[in-house]
Design brief:
There is one protein chain. This protein has helices at residues 2-12, 16-38, 41-45, 53-59, 75-94, 98-115, 122-134, 145-150, 154-157, 164-183, 187-190, 195-200, 208-213, 217-237, 244-265, 271-280, 285-296, 305-316, 321-358, 372-377, 434-444, 452-466; strands at residues 14-15, 160-161, 396-404, 409-411, 417-418, 472-481, 494-502. It is globular and about 80 Å long. By secondary structure, it is α+β, with helices and mostly antiparallel strands. A hairpin with a 5-residue loop joins β4 (409-411) and β5 (417-418). 57% of the residues lie in helices and 7% in strands. The chain has two domains: 2-377, no CATH class; 396-502, no CATH class. Residues 11-287 form the HTTM-like domain. This is HTTM-like domain-containing protein. InterPro entries: HTTM-like (IPR011020), Sporulation_signal_mat (IPR052964).
Length: 506
């Protein structure tokens, strides 16, 4: 047992300053995410949009799910919740009532994600889990209003911290990459090396950096195999108890380059920023010493020598023995709470590990359906199936073919221009943001056929409201399907009408 305790302490101890940097970064991402989502309050979160509440509850809801955003279908109600979330995200950013700010930010993030699952992606799951584990982490100990107010000199001398929550945080990162590698069990990932070729063949997510490397098949094969084995092997570096600082920095630098590369080649929204933020908490003490000295010391109030001396005298004077006794009792109470918290976190971590490994092809028993309610309630359910087991092949682009009262056909995606079935120069530019791109991806699946009429009617209504001089009375959502073929072959696009809607006859 002593050996096991020593192993865990050497492997899963983190620097409190690094946790604080991660807190600040994640709070900033929450604010950015709220800003992006707020541009579609009506479309994505109201009964007038693409997913009314009754449709959500009929097709996408579990009894265990929770969402304040699902209590009302008016966009004004959503706006209020968004403002509350923004306020607490700012509190988290500056470290004011940090634990409370973390809890509220997590609850409201979980709530808004549950309101519209059709626009979610893997980065959302990671952001949600990081905030969840952050509830149990003291990431307000540095670079925060709380730290300045409390003026705890002991934290100035020792910035190392270990608990069940640090184990959960590091294991969460390891699970993300190991699980996604295990799910990539097709030859295109670990033998043929064609996965990145197919990913860059998707015009819906292709970025300029991807266009530059796309013509080089050998380079793409090398990068594919490198990606697979990086995700497979890198997590184990986090579990090595010796040369801990060195291996942590290897993980941080490799994943930093990895996600910057993804952002330059593929349109993934906030996914890369969330993943980069997740590894900042791994920064070792010597690195944080330099960052603290050069960049961040200005953000926290230094503790003076005089204050330290006063604190030492207070805790040592016999005349305040009663203070010392109460302090001792307080420490015992804190130890008891810490023990309970560690047991609770350890149990939830084991639950998450079982959930993750049970989704892969490893010989691990699947989690019983009767045990999943807990995961759905607290949204501990995870599936890191990015481009797995194979990369999506049904590429193409959308045409919103509207018919005016005069019988003229216009494309709403081209600001009402003449219908043109030629592929746009940039398919990515058709999407307002990554939320709409993800929605359009889900729109393709036959199992999601229920969602199609609501989008069709929404787009027709919005067009008519904003173009009263050029209204349409009919709309067809057309997908120009261009499946990705091997060896740079180009398929002939086919026209598929996914949905057709019209104004009701008067």
């Amino acid at each position: 047992m002593k050996f096991l305790e020593l192993y865990f302490r050497k492997t899963f101890t983190v620097d409190l300053r690094a946790l604080a940097v991660m807190r600040i970064w994640l709070a900033g991402i929450v604010l950015i995410d709220l800003g992006i989502r707020a541009t579609d309050l009506e479309a994505h979160y109201s009964n007038m949009g693409v997913l009314p509440l009754y449709v959500l509850h009929q097709f996408l809801w579990f009894p265990q799910l929770f969402s304040l955003h699902a209590l009302n279908g008016m966009w004004q109600f959503q706006a209020v919740l968004f403002m509350v979330a923004a306020v607490f995200a700012v509190f988290l950013l500056v470290g004011y009532r940090t634990r409370l700010a973390t809890i509220v930010s997590w609850v409201l993030l979980l709530s808004v994600q549950n309101r519209n699952p059709l626009i979610g992606q893997g980065g959302d799951d990671l952001l949600r889990m990081l905030l969840f584990w952050g509830i149990f982490l003291p990431w307000g100990a540095f670079y925060s209003y709380d730290a300045v107010k409390k003026q705890q000199p002991d934290l100035q001398e020792n910035t190392s911290y270990f608990s069940a929550a640090t184990v959960a945080y590091i294991m969460q990162i390891a699970l993300v990459y190991f699980s996604t590698a295990m799910l990539k069990n097709s030859p295109e990932w670990h033998t043929d090396g064609t996965a990145l070729y197919y990913a860059l063949s998707l015009d819906q997510i292709l970025m300029p950096g991807g266009r530059l490397i796309y013509p080089y098949p050998e380079l793409l094969r090398f990068l594919t195999l490198t990606t697979y084995y990086t995700e497979l092997i890198l997590p184990f570096l986090l579990l090595i108890p010796v040369y801990n600082n060195f291996f942590r920095m290897v993980v941080v630098l490799v994943l930093l380059g990895f996600h910057i590369g993804i952002s330059l080649t593929l349109f993934v929204g906030l996914f890369y920023l969330i993943n980069i933020a997740s590894i900042t908490g791994l920064l070792p003490g010597p690195v944080m010493d330099w960052i603290d000295r050069k960049l961040l010391r200005v953000f926290r109030k230094p503790y003076t020598k005089e204050f330290r001396e006063i604190f030492a005298r207070i805790t040592q004077q016999p005349k305040i023995l009663s203070f010392q006794v109460s302090l001792h009792q307080s420490i015992i109470e804190k130890d008891n709470r810490r023990y309970i918290r560690n047991v609770l976190v350890a149990g939830m971590l084991l639950y998450c590990i079982w959930w993750n490994l049970g989704t892969t092809h490893l010989p691990v028993p699947k989690m019983p359906e009767g045990s999943k309610w807990f995961g759905y309630m607290f949204r501990l359910n995870q599936h890191w199936g990015m481009f797995s087991p194979i990369v999506f092949r049904d590429d193409g682009w959308y045409i919103l073919e509207g018919k005016t009262e005069q019988g003229t056909l216009v494309d709403l995606n081209q600001q009402g221009g003449e219908i043109n079935y030629t592929k746009p120069a940039s398919v990515v530019s058709l999407f307002k943001n990554d939320r709409w791109r993800k929605y359009s991806e889900n729109y393709l699946f036959v199992k999601n056929g229920y969602m199609r009429p609501y989008y069709c009617h929404y787009m027709m209504r919005i067009w008519n409201e904003s173009h009263p001089g050029k209204p349409i009375n009919q709309l067809e959502v057309i997908y120009m399907k261009e499946p990705s073929l091997p060896d740079y072959q180009v398929s002939v696009p086919t026209r598929e009408v996914l949905c057709s809607c019209a104004l009701a006859a008067e």
